[in-house]
Amino acid sequence: MTRAIALDVGGTYIKGGVADEDGVLRESERWSTGAERGPDAVLETVLAAARELADRHRPSVAGIAVPGIVDETAGTVILAANLGWRRLPVRDRLAEELGLPVALGHDVRAGGLAEARIGAGRGSRAFLFVPVGTGIAAALIADGRTMTGSHARAGELGHLVVRTGGDACPCGGRGCLETVASAAAVARRYAVATGEDGVTAKDVGERAAAGDEAAVAVWNEAIDALADALAAAITLFDPERIVIGGGLSRAGDPYFTPLRAAVAERLTFQTLPDIVPADLGHEAGCQGAALLAHDLLQRKAGR
After folding, report:
1. Across the strands, what pairs with 71?
2. Is pTM, for the whole model, over 0.85?
3. Crossing angle, helix 213-237 and helix 183-194, to 10 degrees?
4. pLDDT tens sequence across 241-283
5. How buried is 166 (Cβ within 10 angstroms: 0-12 exposed, 13-18 middle, 19+ buried)?
6. Which CATH class name applies to 122-278?
7. CA 186 – CA 182 distance, rounded (Å)
8. What gap in Å lies between CA 69 and CA 71, rounded to an integer?
């Protein structure tokens, strides 16, 4: 049986798994990234994890998804700040290690591909995948393909300015969506408002539902900012569906009901897309890497 191994490299964990001929993950596991050890050590851990999977499963192909700015065509990670990687030819290094063909993808675009084929985007000709977690990004999927842009930078929704002159963002801008609507921003803004540290975005959502005034203000502002960004994306791309992933997608109706209403309020001539939670959770990136590997094998076979 033809098998593929897949890796999704994150700042905290490397997720790995194996897929059969249909490209669907059957097994998964993870390793600590250890990003504090430096970029070379992270690469060695990735290669060791891949070798471990390959020795166990004897695959015909491998796929890997990486955050940051990724040039899939060149097989290069241009910049993955949380890993310390710059201009790293990840595809070639992994192919050399394994002696296999390797597909490289951006983690969010890979996750969007997975949601398109076997997740919440199934049956949708065009949809937007928006993971809202520590940061915010997006992948536009049209006719089963992801948009990368002319410089491999498409999808940086988190750096759309939604509050002019707002909080400083690590990207160098001010008032970016990530500074208001990400899980990290929700926790940080609540801490600033109350002086209470150690409260997570999940906690803020629960406190907002219970009527905590500071939590309600932070929660509503996060939803309003995301609605502003999604309204802009709808105007530009006209998606049939918006799939929200990441940690905040698990907040359920207290998140999605006001978000849908806020987006609807901002639209005039545009068609309101379905706004739904993702199906694949934290497995989306790894599953997408497996599908990229599957596609590569199909192309090599001329199918």
Report:
1. 76
2. yes
3. 150
4. 999 999 899 999 999 999 999 999 999 999 999 999 999 988 9
5. middle
6. alpha beta
7. 6
8. 7
Q: Domain residues of the chain, as ranges?
A: 4-111+282-300, 122-278
What are 218's strand-pairing partners? Answer: none
For residue 269, the SS3 value is: coil
* Phi, psi torsion values for 83, nearest 5 degrees: -105, -15
Which pLDDT score is estimated for 85?
95
Q: 4-111+282-300 falls under which CATH superfamily?
A: ATPase, nucleotide binding domain (3.30.420.40)
User: How many percent of the chain have pLDDT more than 90?
Assistant: 83
Separation CA 157–CA 178 (nearest Å): 8
Q: What is the pLDDT of residue 1?
A: 67
Nearest to 80 by CA among 285, 246, 296: 285
Pairing of strands 4-9, 13-19: antiparallel
Residues 56, 101: Cα–Cα separation, whole Å: 17
